[in-house]
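Format notes (please read before filing issues)

Several people have asked whether sequences and structure tokens are stored in separate files. They are not. Every record keeps both together, in the order shown below: the sequence lines, then the token lines. Line labels are part of the format and must not be stripped during preprocessing.
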Amino acid sequence: MQKTNILSLLKELKRLYPKHVIPLHHKNAWELLCAVILSAQCTDARVNTITPHLFKKYPTVQDLAKANLKDVETIIHSAGFYHSKAISLIQMSKRICEVYGGKVPQTMEELLTLRGVARKTANVMLGDYFKKPAGIVVDTHVKRLSFRLGLTKETDPVKIEKDLTKIIPYKYWGWVAIALILHGRQVCNARKPGCARCTLAGLCLRKGVK
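Then the structure lines:
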């Protein structure tokens, strides 16, 4: 895609989705990190029904670090993969308390030392919460739309992210993933993309591709 088209794409996405709104409910960085870990293979809507109960029982990182595994599993059961997620939540919280003084770290290298945190989760924290992105979040929606819009030919999320960071100006890194995710949910869905009502259709190199 030519640079002018990239700028046109970003301009239209900004018109459609002007605000950088994180769909996972949270009050602080640690709550968002818990929610992102829970969101793996689970909808944001479902996570948002689970976290109020989780944070009521464990209101601080110190509380969750000392939690009983079975109790956490019971609370987050409906998120799927509840056993491994419960372990991740507890171990992540323990490390934050023991190594980072109870504060969620703010570098990619440090975030990746936390259990349950891979590059996508770290990018959410750095770009969406701390507003100092080290890359672009690539989830299933971003992957699908990046291919359909001709932004990449890759299928591996790490390679897709590399392609996106080459062509999208840094100031948009944190917001663009949210915009693409929202567009993927509302218009350009996986099974039946709504090309006829999509205002990005004129910029789409693979219009109608599923």
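For reference, the curators noted about this record: The mean pLDDT is 94. The chain has two domains: 3-20+136-203, 29-129.
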